[in-house]
Amino acid sequence: MTTMTETSARFREFKMPDVGEGLTEAEILKWFVQPGDTVTDGQVVCEVETAKAAVELPIPFDGVVHELRFPEGTTVDVGQVIIAIDVAPGSGDAPAPAAAAPAQEPVSEPEAEAEPKGRTPVLVGYGVAESSTKRRPRKGAAAAPETAAVAAAVQAELNGHGAPAPAAVPARTGVPEAGRPLAKPPVRKLAKDLGIDLATVVPTGKDGIITREDVHAAAAPAAPEAPAAVGSPVASEAPAAAVPAGASDSARETRIPVKGVRKAIAQAMVGSAFTAPHVTEFVTVDVTRTMKLVAELKEDKDMAGVRVNPLLIIAKALLVAIKRNPEVNAAWDEANQEIVQKHYVNLGIAAATPRGLIVPNIKDAHDKTLPQLAEALGELVTTARDGKTSPAAMAGGTVTITNVGVFGVDTGTPILNPGESAILAVGAIKLQPWVHKGKVKPRQVTTLALSFDHRLVDGELGSKVLADVAAILEQPKRLITWA
Description:
Blueprint: E1 4-6, E2 11-15, E3 25-31, E4 38-39, E5 44-49, E6 54-58, E7 63-68, E8 75-77, E9 81-86, E10 111-113, E11 135-137, H1 144-158, H2 185-194, H3 212-219, H4 233-237, H5 260-275, E12 278-286, H6 288-299, H7 310-324, E13 330-333, E14 338-341, E15 347-349, E16 351-353, E17 356-358, E18 361-362, H8 370-385, E19 399-403, E20 422-426, E21 430-436, E22 439-453, H9 459-474, H10 478-481
Parallel strand pairs: 15-19, 19-20
Antiparallel strand pairs: 1-2, 2-9, 3-5, 3-8, 4-7, 5-6, 7-9, 10-11, 12-22, 13-14, 15-18, 16-17, 20-22, 21-22
Helix pairs in contact: 2-3, 7-8, 7-9
């Protein structure tokens, strides 16, 4: 089943697919084609961002681009048509596909669709399984002219025109005569998250539909009142420090919509912080010998072509510590009230990207040799920086490393990646005075911090894991003797 529909024998439409696991929307980041361009089966036509990652979408048929239904930067619901393709160019006149409604508006006639009965997992670019839907007349559709009149009256009032609302119009804006305010489920959720009562929102969408923009406008702070005319009672009583004409909060602050990856991060971190009881332990360790090993490995011909850095040795040290203390590699099953011990390690590496912090993981990292681990780390970092990390690469992690030392930070108290048991924060490696063999000498020193879920990991187990990692970094030969 593909995400396309046929409006005629000539035109085909491609719908926004479910590119993740049950995601409901995605933002169009960039179009790689324009109307008139020729496309072939499998060609990438756009890049979209979901709550998990940025994904490129291929078109599943040949033809010429007839129409792009949404501009870049638009958030589109899964199942909405995003592009129309002429699959038989030059075959004569044929009716063009019906234009889609603007972003976040209904695509069909002014009527509401029932929720789809289900969706099956799909490959990127090949959409969601079609499901039968039933349509019912939207309540209050006949009241759309009155709703529009209300909107016009309210806008006139806001603009200072003072136009009175028609007497026949219902008192509550955006509410049909019989029923609740008209808005799509994602818009209702947005209003709930922002604490906005939809009954107070002025709709601007077709047939009185409340859009995302309407909700954001209702959530924005009210603009300062303009100064009254000179000589009026209000002007004579106004304080000397009145807001100058034209002054606005926009010059003093910038509002950034939280969506896509950043929205998912925010929700995940809040969920993790308030569901898993975090405990964090710290240890400061002399890593001088580890730094010498890194320098030697960079010259080793067996490591040619891969990136060697302290993070590689730290990752290997953590894997060895988990092997010695396997109980730490677990997850909490809330539904069954069970601890699920994992016999594999999918090692997450926190990566800062322009779209926010993501945590892709190296699958089965416990089975990899040092060169293989180095290669996997290099690929992971490069892919993350390019913004090409797939949702699958971020799923199924068990333990994570976050390297705050690259920012010059000594340590921190990292928050667990949801569903994982532990996260190791690595601080900056600095030359510091250190007692070595009974004498104070300059040594390479760093601080490690291990946060763990106290439902799964008690203080003894967490301490053993952290102490093992520190011991390996102090004496890297333990990578051999303990492996």
